[in-house]
């Protein structure tokens, strides 16, 4: 099959069958579009002409690029290539999977960066409790920390997702839904936003069902949510790096430090594998050292 047709077939498959988020689909399209363009430069126009050697040459060329790509970017690129070739082989479009022996680069294990509880409290208290936009921002921040939601999940929430009182329905990767509790602080912040701010914002837009709205009434974007988090960090005078995932990391870390079971945290975060969640257990090494030094008779 011609490369462009094969690529279109795969993108339709991941869009319809797997329900991937828009930014994930964009990454697939960008990675595989570059791969197909590279194949064309090698004089390859058909999927059956792609050999294991060709795939290995592509991976080696990308790994040796200047400046060197980040290991995470290279791993994602190779994952996109492997996924496409697996699909082509499974559907009978190609006779075999030439990427079967391709191994992703080993990535350094990075511990997620979490804020201290004091830092989180200062961050959550940074937006104004009187200004309408500040009330909205505080509701968003409280909800992120209370539920461990990804920023993309939070801005995708509809008002009806809060209809069950003290629990919230989140839609994660692959459109998988999970139910998470909402603490009293977050619920109070969201209620204040819903009653005092959102009606006025909604009147400026086009009757969106989204929970969080921008100043003009349109649904709040991921980029705007990131700016809200960064502004709150600056207002709280937090010098540590604060990313869109910081409150999610802090949520998981503080739960584990408080004695929560790692499998419960896995469920709350929406991780498919407990191995992904277990990285947070390493964050508490300092706590383990302190307990050991205090409790063991021969620790000092």
From TrEMBL:
One of its GO terms (cellular component) is cytoplasm. Belongs to the 'phage' integrase family. XerD subfamily. It comes from the Bacteria. PROSITE patterns: CB, TYR_RECOMBINASE. InterPro entries: CB, DNA_brk_join_enz, Integrase-like_cat_sf, Integrase_catalytic, Integrase_recombinase_N, Integrase_SAM-like_N, Recomb_XerD, Tyrosine_recombinase_XerC/XerD. GO terms for biological process: cell division; chromosome segregation; DNA transposition. The gene is xerD. The active site is at residues 150, 173, 245, 248, 271, 280. Forms a cyclic heterotetrameric complex composed of two molecules of XerC and two molecules of XerD. Residues 1-89 form the Core-binding (CB) domain. Keywords: Cell cycle, Cell division, Chromosome partition, Cytoplasm, DNA integration, DNA recombination, DNA-binding. Its main location: cytoplasm. PANTHER family: PHAGE INTEGRASE-RELATED, TYROSINE RECOMBINASE XERC. It comes from Microbacterium azadirachtae. GO terms for molecular function: DNA binding; tyrosine-based site-specific recombinase activity. It is found in: Cytoplasm. This is Tyrosine recombinase XerD. Site-specific tyrosine recombinase, which acts by catalyzing the cutting and rejoining of the recombining DNA molecules. The XerC-XerD complex is essential to convert dimers of the bacterial chromosome into monomers to permit their segregation at cell division. It also contributes to the segregational stability of plasmids. Residues 110-293 form the Tyr recombinase domain.
């Amino acid at each position: 099959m011609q490369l462009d047709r094969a690529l279109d077939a795969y993108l339709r498959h991941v869009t319809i069958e797997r329900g991937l988020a828009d930014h994930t689909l964009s990454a697939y399209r960008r990675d595989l579009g570059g791969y197909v363009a590279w194949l064309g430069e090698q004089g390859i126009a058909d999927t059956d002409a792609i050999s294991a050697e060709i795939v290995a040459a592509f991976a080696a060329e990308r790994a040796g690029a200047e400046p060197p790509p980040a290991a995470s970017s290279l791993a994602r690129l190779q994952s996109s290539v492997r996924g496409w070739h697996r699909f082509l082989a499974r559907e009978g479009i190609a006779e075999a999977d030439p990427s079967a022996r391709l191994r992703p680069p080993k990535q350094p294990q990075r511990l997620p960066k979490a804020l201290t509880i004091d830092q989180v409290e200062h961050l959550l208290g940074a937006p104004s409790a009187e200004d309408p936009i500040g009330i909205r921002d505080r509701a968003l921040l409280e909800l992120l920390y209370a539920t461990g939601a990804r920023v993309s999940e939070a801005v995708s929430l509809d008002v009806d997702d809060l209809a069950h009182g003290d629990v919230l329905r989140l839609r994660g990767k692959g459109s998988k839904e999970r139910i998470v509790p909402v603490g009293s602080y977050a619920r109070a912040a969201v209620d204040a936003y819903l009653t005092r701010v959102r009606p006025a914002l909604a009147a400026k837009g086009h009757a969106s069902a989204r929970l969080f709205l921008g100043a003009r009434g349109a649904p709040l974007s991921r980029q705007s949510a990131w700016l809200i988090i960064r502004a709150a960090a600056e207002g709280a005078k937090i010098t540590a790096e604060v990313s869109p995932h910081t409150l999610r990391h802090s949520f998981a870390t503080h739960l584990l430090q408080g004695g929560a079971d790692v499998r419960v945290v896995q469920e709350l975060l929406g991780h498919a594998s407990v191995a992904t969640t277990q990285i947070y257990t390493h964050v508490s090494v300092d706590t383990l050292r302190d307990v050991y030094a205090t409790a063991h008779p021969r620790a000092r």
